[in-house]
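Folding Task

Wanted — backbone structure
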Amino acid sequence: MKKILLLALFSITLMGCNDPESAAAEASQLRAEQHPERTYVGEHNYYIMESSEHAAFGRKKELKVMYQDFPRYFVEKAKEWPKEDLNDASSYDLPRFQFAWANSSSEDEYESGLKIWSMKTDGTDLRLVTDATIDLTAVRNLTRSPNNRYVAWAGSGGHKSVYDLKTGKVSDMHKFTSPLDMLWSEDSRYLYFDDAINSYARWDSETGEVSDSDLKVRTEAVLTENKIIKVTDAAVVGYNLKTNERLFVLSSDRSLSDKERIFNVKSISPTGRFAWGSNQDYGWLFDTKEQTMKQMVDDFVPAQILGKDAHYSALSKMTYVTIVDRVEDKVWSWRAFSHGAMSGEGVLYNGLANNGLWFKEGK
């Protein structure tokens, strides 16, 4: 009887050793023991926590360098990485950055291809937005709908597509060479875009149809039911869409030369209250509610991405994240990724979450 019991126990042990789930659990435990500094995401991916670094802008503006730990991601297999989930409320408790990134240089076509990713403004919660094949060599413009459901991108030639996070469907809006500008309606139903020089169209998210439009759009703009506020080459302009009346023009200094007035960097806050324009010599912060303009010479930090109430801004290259608290003159800089290649620039969405603040209280 004892021999039978021992043989049975031995058989159970062997079965456990051959169980794939058991083997995976043991491998995972072994990795954790060998690399306690890593937090694994799947079998091949992980992140470590590293301190932020000193940031130099090459300008006279004095900023207090802040040091704290941020995640640095090592993504070898995007297929194992969690995707952004509209039903996961925890992902949307902070504003988020969105960007195009090829996570690997391997010969694997999927892993080396451009995909859309996102993360919170504090560097946490990296998510794969879409792993749909992007048949483009580069992504030159990205935009997210106000309800977070749709992400649209434009390639180098202006070819435009939109991805639905809810259904996983990719729609080609425009397949021909055109300018890059795109702008969502406030209710997320329409995506307005350039379909040719001085010609505009809109994509209907409910019907999938593309139709002609009279709305002249810019990417650096905010569109509401009755009004559009947009940043042009040297000014910020507001229009009443019902009456076609120009509401205001806030211009850079007209006494300057054209070269000195033109914006090389442009951005607008999520509500349209504040807008930014700058070039090598001058920077301008516009308040569209108070109808004011502040001009700065040299002593300023460019705002390629501008947050709510112009409290925070960021540089748009997401490989090396740089965030500025423009109220308290603080700066954070950290390396978010160990490898991979970015295409185009990062953008902000979900910008009103946490009252527009990019870090949670106490962090």
Notes: The first strand starts at residue 39 and ends at 41. The CA atoms of residues 16 and 237 lie 69 Å apart.
